[in-house]
Amino acid sequence: MIYRFRLTEDEYDYDVLTAVTAYLDCEHYAWLHARNYSHYEILEDGPTTSRIIQHSKYLGITFKQHHFREYLPPSEFRMSSDKPFPIYTHTRFTERADGGVHRTVDVSVDLPWPLWPLRGLLAAHLRRYDARVYGEDAAAAERRARYLGKNNWLWAFRPSQFLLHKDAVIAAFREQIAARGLVLDESASQ
Ligand SMILES: [Fe+2]
After folding, report:
1. Phi, psi of 72 (to 5 degrees)
2. Three-state SS for 111?
3. Which of 53, 100, 110, 179 fits a disulfide with 86 by CB distance 3.0 to 4.6 angstroms?
4. How many Å lie between the centroid of ligand 1 and the Cα of residue 2?
């Protein structure tokens, strides 16, 4: 039985590219979000799609999830996960007039019928989980801003940084990135 709901709608005072690079940075998942994600393994990194194994902890239980993730440039993402039951998410980052970012996440879960009466509790649990993970990302963005300056995402495009779908992000934000003086040559996208 499909249960659809809006997981969250919130605001951050950094720009869209900061949010996109934070989302696609593979290297932070297993340490920054260690309380929820104890394992993060990339099986396939295509131009805009990826397959990942992630161990996620819900209600004290660790689920070994297979994720299929899709980047819809410039700033939308779809994700499907197989455990504990099929979960689909659609995340959108949109720019606000003041330079901040608005995030919406829509979720649909394919619930086994015995869990249907618990769907409200499940949504509340996923909201707490999401708020904790995004709180960690926002705190990391603040720390980074303190040391590197606000909206400084140049780190993400270093040749040594493993950012999922880096070429697609560079193509979608080419003007904004070039305006910061980053030379976008072959080595910047490897
Ligand atoms: Fe994160």
Report:
1. -110, 95
2. coil
3. 110
4. 27
The distance of Cα 186 from the centroid of its chain, to the nearest Å, equals 25
Write the pLDDT tens digit of every residue in 139-165.
888 898 899 888 999 999 998 899 999
Ligand 1 centroid distance, CA of 103 (Å): 13
Q: Distance between CA atoms of 139 and 130, rounded to whole angstroms?
A: 14
Lookup: tokens for 177? 């990135």
Three-class DSSP category at 139: helix
The rounded Å distance from CA 121 to ligand 1 centre is 24
Burial of 54 (0-12, 13-18, 19+ CB in 10 A): buried
28 Cα–ligand 1 center, Å: 7
Identity at 30, one-letter amino acid code: A
Angle at the Cα of 67 from the Cα atoms of 84 and 24, rounded to 5 degrees:
130
Q: What is the pLDDT of residues 10-48, one digit of tens each?
A: 999 999 999 999 999 988 887 788 877 888 899 999 999
Using the 8-state DSSP alphabet, how is residue 35 labeled? T
Fold of the 2-189 domain: Alpha-D-Glucose-1,6-Bisphosphate; Chain A, domain 4 (3.30.530)
> What are the extents of the domains in the chain?
2-189
Q: Which residues surround ligand 1, an ion (CB under 5 A)?
A: 137
